[in-house]
Amino acid sequence: MFSRRMVLAGGAALSLTSPLRGSPATTSRLRRFASAHRFSGIVAQARGGRLHDVFMAGLADREKGLPIEPSTSFRIGSITKWLTAIAVLRLAERGRMSLRAPIGRYLPELGKAFAAVPLDNLLANNSGIPDLVGRAAAADPSFRASTAGSAEIVRRFASGMLAFAPGERFDYSFFNWVLVHAAIERVTGRPFEAIIANEVLRPARLTQAGFIDTAHPTAPGVAQAYAANGALKLGLVPPFGGASGNVHATAADLASLAHHVFAGRVLRRRSLVELTRVRVPDENYALGGRMRVLGGRNTAWQTGKVGAYRAHLAHDIAADRTVVILNNGDLEQSVIGKLAEELLIPPEG
């Protein structure tokens, strides 16, 4: 049973919930963190994919006064890219796709330069394909309200010159993921969302995760998100951007995801090697996300941002320990990342 009390911190009402099972020291520490940073969201720790310590602060819906609960879902932004990479690896295991295949094998309408780029370079954000879609959105904000699918966007931006040779450097390009989205749909003949559900969400036992309707950036059970001034800041991801960041999930979902992936229940061993092999050392970037060494231990380090949502998934692979931080208050990712490090790395002595 959860106990709940109301406190005032920095002039804003925070609803704080005691952990499911957690040490008084950790609880006290997280309360201080919540007060200092006006934190709204959930901080959860898990072992073996099962939550053992959950701390909540703030409101999921300020207008309705709804508190954040363990079952509250949050949009996870670019952690969706990691799910997309896992789906590609699952398809590759069955011979439907190949990491080293040129993207033109799946999207023959691409111009010569783009078509020759290997698929894994897109997944590692070092493809050299310029972010034509991101530039279009920056020049015309209404572009994000487009109802076009990824295939249409690919046709529109199919040709151009590479900005650099594939693998030469890192470029966090939105267009990479539009291309991957279109390739997955072309290969399978099914909607991208259905593929992610079948290839990732179900095998990893994510029970509440799903996709946000791109025309309505909220859904029942999903927390609203707020800028520092209190205004709603939900973020809009168009249909063609689904592979880049349009999934929502709970803390329990993300803990289950990390556990099942690294326990070998979603991917084969060779695929896990590919998923975790760092392609861009300066960025610690592997496929669809980052890998770091923390406290001498290999750690999956996944972060996401959309609107005022922030998501952080840190997983100590050998110890099967996970820290999940979900925020709906526009908190700086560096602050969230520091807390994740402190919680994941065991104290000395």
UniProtKB/TrEMBL annotation:
It holds the Pfam family Beta-lactamase. Coiled coil: none annotated. Residues 36-332 form the Beta-lactamase-related domain. It comes from the Bacteria. PANTHER family: BETA-LACTAMASE-RELATED DOMAIN-CONTAINING PROTEIN, D-ALANYL-D-ALANINE-CARBOXYPEPTIDASE/ENDOPEPTIDASE AMPH. This is Beta-lactamase family protein.
